[in-house]
């Protein structure tokens, strides 16, 4: 990956930038593949490059949401708080399959283990409740950013955690009130929230959370919300 000075970036995070993401049009139809690096450069995003992603919201049996703080080693949005796990299906056979969002489910299961040490048997694919998709664009630091069609999944499970320190700085389970307090005091505490997490919280999360045991009744599987 030439053309950039990688010396100030974490070696493992640079390696992951070579993974191949799924390029899509604005209707989420695959149109090719490109490296994670190319998908996240603002120069390409500003030309319209769009890729597929997912966001997992994992709740325990008490109804608390597992929040993560992204590692400082992350290239985009380092140190930001966000939902349980967010990443990308890759342009590989198992993760490009679209029926019942199976490719995105497999990717989510894979990344839950990679980032948080959650074993696949604790989050079987049929536990991922697909709610909807959102399309959003968000710069990170001027050089990097996000432009994604993001599949939103809820999972309710009690899991064992072993966070990967190269991916995750901290984790905690929170209630709705605690999350609202985090947002209300961001200016005083100096914490930052990822833009996709903020959008989902502002527009959807709390009504879904209120219906956690019947959340699929609120699903909009055929809708792409443009944020």
Structure description:
With 227 residues, this protein is α+β, with helices and mostly antiparallel strands. The chain has a single domain, classed as Nucleoside Triphosphate Pyrophosphohydrolase (Alpha-Beta Complex). Helices cover 28% and strands 28% of the residues. The protein is built from 8 helices and 10 strands. The strands form 3 sheets. It has a 5-stranded mixed beta sheet, with helices on one face. Strands 5-4-9 form a 3-stranded antiparallel beta sheet. Strands 1-2 form a two-stranded antiparallel ribbon. The chain is globular. It starts with 10 loop residues before the first helix and ends with a strand.
* Poorly predicted spans: none
How many beta strands in the DSSP annotation?
10
Please outline the major beta sheet: 5 strands, mixed
Structural class: alpha+beta
Pathway: Isoprenoid biosynthesis; dimethylallyl diphosphate biosynthesis; dimethylallyl diphosphate from isopentenyl diphosphate: step 1/1
Domain Nudix hydrolase: 49-199
Pfam family, one: NUDIX
Protein name: isopentenyl-diphosphate Delta-isomerase
